[in-house]
Structure formats: C-alpha cells, structure tokens
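Lab notebook: predicted structure, single chain.

Context: the supervisor wants predicted structures on file for every construct in the current expression panel, including those that have not yet been purified. This is the next one on the list. No modifications to the sequence; it matches the entry in the shared construct table.
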Amino acid sequence: MRLVILGGGESGIGTAILGKKKGYDVFVSDFGKIKENYKEVLTINKIAWEDEKHTESLILNADVVMKSPGIPEKVPIVKKLLELKIPVISEIEFASQFTTATTIGITGSNGKTTTTMLVYHLLKQGGLNVGLAGNIGKSFAWQVAEDKYDVYVLELSSFQLDGIINYKPHIAIITNLSPDHLDRYNYDYNLYIESKFRIIKNQTEDDFLIVDNDDIEIQRWLQNNKTNAQIISFSIEKELERGGFLNENNLNSNINNEKFTMPINELALEGKHNLKNAMAATAVAQLMKIRKQTIRESLSNFQGAEHRLEKTLKIQNVQYINDSKATNVNATFFALDSMKTPTIWIVGGVDKGNDYDELMSLVREKVKGIVCLGVDNSKLFSTFSSVVDTMVETTSMEEAVKIAQRMAEKGDSVLLSPCCASFDLFENYEDRGRQFKQAVYNL
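Prediction complete. Output recorded below exactly as produced.
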C-alpha cells in the first residue's frame, strides 16, 4: 500500500512515522520548505520526501493520501487526486484506525483550545493515562505510533473533520458556531456548519455529544438532523435537568444522576465563555468517572492557553493583554466583552470575510483607540473610524505596541485581539503573540 502525505509539518511527519511502522510505502511531499528537524526525522526513519514541489508521478500512484489540514481542496494536486478517486483523508482518520484508545473530540469556532486543554487537565489530574493531540501539541499519529495512551483528547478543526470517513469520538464536544474560515467553504456558512457536525457522523447510542444549549445554529442543526449519540447540553441562560447550568453563583452539572456543584468565583478562568468551557469539560470528566473533588481542584488550578487573553505585563498601570489566538470576530467579541477598563485595541491581518458590525456596540463602549496591524486595513477604517477617537495604521508589531503605549493612559488596557488570520505579516498566530509579548517587554 502506497501512502502519500501532502504537507511535511507536525501532522505529516507523525503520519509518515505511523505509516512506516504499519508497513506502508510512504512518501512525503511539501510544496513549501520542510523544517530541518523534520527532514532529519524522515531521513533517520528512511522515509522518502521532497519539498518545494509536488512531483505528480510520485503522488498520483498513491492508494491513500493524507492531506495536511492547511492545504485547501482547490489546490491543483488535490483536485487531480479527487478526480482519480484516490481517498484523501486527514491525519485523525488515518491514525484512528490503528488505536483502540478512547477519544474525546472537541470542535467549535471558539474556545476549543481552552476546552481541550481543560479536559486534558481534568482527566490527567484524575489519574487517567491521557494524551493531547489534534490541532494542538504533538501529532496524534505520532503518539499512536508510540502507543502510550488509553485516552486521547483531540482538538479538531473543521479542516481535520473534512477528511474523516470512519473516525468516531466516544465523546464529542461542539463548543459553539460562528462564521469562520468561510474563504475555504465558498463563503457558505452552511457548508462550514456541516463540516463541524461531521464529528458526530459515526457516533452510536453508546457515544455522547456535548453542546451549547444557548447556541442558535447548533440547536437549529439538531432540530433538523438526526444524531444517534446521547446529547448533553450546557447553558448559562437557563436551568437544565441534564448537563451544565448556572444556579445563583454556582456552576452545576448533572450527568447520569451524579450532581456536581462549584462556586463560579473559584474557577481559574474568567469570563462568560469560559464558564461554558468549564461546563463542557466538567461533563466529560463526569462521563469519564473522575472524582468530584478532583474536578473542583482541577477547575480552580488550571492555567489557561498561551495567546488567549494572556495578561503579559503591567507598565505604568497599563495592562497589556495578548489575545493573538482571536482570529475571528466571535473570539474578539469575547475578548472585548471581558474588558473592564478603557481599551486600546490592536487589530488586523488577513480578513477571512469578517463582518465587523457585530463588534460595534462593544467598540463604542470599551475602545478609545485602534491600532491597525495588517497589510490592508481599509475595511477596519470604513467600519470604525467614525466610532473611536484615534485610529492609526502600522506594519510592524513593535511599532503597533509603541503607538498603543502612547495612546494609553493610566488604568487603561492594551489588547492585541486581531480578529484576523496572521499570514500577511507573521508566520502564525503564535509568532504574532510572541512578537507582541517581546515588544511589550522592550517598552
């Protein structure tokens, strides 16, 4: 069996190692450059590879192709593979057939990284032998090749879900839905929603789906479509008989007649959206039979994700906050909503079809100045220039942070919450977040 892997990043290399171990004839092809450390891994494992090109004669003879999530289906080589009816799958699909471990799959437009890390933290503290993979950490396939874990917590993007055929999580979470990555779905929100719901397509009545009861799109989909899984909901708007809800100032979770309760002021994470993330994670922990005391302790001592409303430094009584992971309007909405002080907002990048109008009331209420950080900021200017006092364009993070410092007064906050992808000026959102932190340290 010939396995061809498109993309020589973390998921590609992990898949190559697992494929080799399982007896496939493996070939890795990357249209860009493969990093040196990954090239070494391939060479040591005697796996054939190429970079900066796709050689058709070495690719189109594949029995199966694993495509990295970052490669769109409209790329010529992928189109040719699909025309030839060669299966093009994701790393998650490929690796899942070689493990008997229980998997917990987490998707959604926002909050999935935090929820994934929180679930992992709860299960690990509860003594389970658990791995963390998917869109985060070390490649799932690589971990399956090393075969160490009984349970995996997987953060799954819509692109990873597009490439699944038989994969089935025992517990699936859909945190929420809001328009994102629409450039990859022909600007059709329904296609994107369908993509997220692929997470449940193979679930049976022995499996669970955990969803936000307050999310209109999720509820609409569930009313109009059938699912075999047992549905568990969470809500911050109403009390539920089963699942997570608020009662006075307590987080409550009722699963299989097991009642869990905890004061919300003891949660490590702040903000409404994090209450929901905590409810989703608690439901998983209860289904996985983690002790209540352990759940309480874990929810109170959890350290949040880097680049997610991460308090960087306070300088001259101005708080600098790194929310580089906010790559869409919904994520930035949460960030602005959680601000308690007048805010200088650093925003911009590659716009994925954003509708900024949703942010208008928050910007009016919280934001006194905007620093645009992107190659094309015209849409931001036309939307917000009439609403804030000052709006400035910059093309480097260092400059953006210096200008924000000048605009800020004592008691203000400077928030990097870009609302956009990072690829115009940065390698990725992590690079953008690190550059922000470095620029703040240099002030």
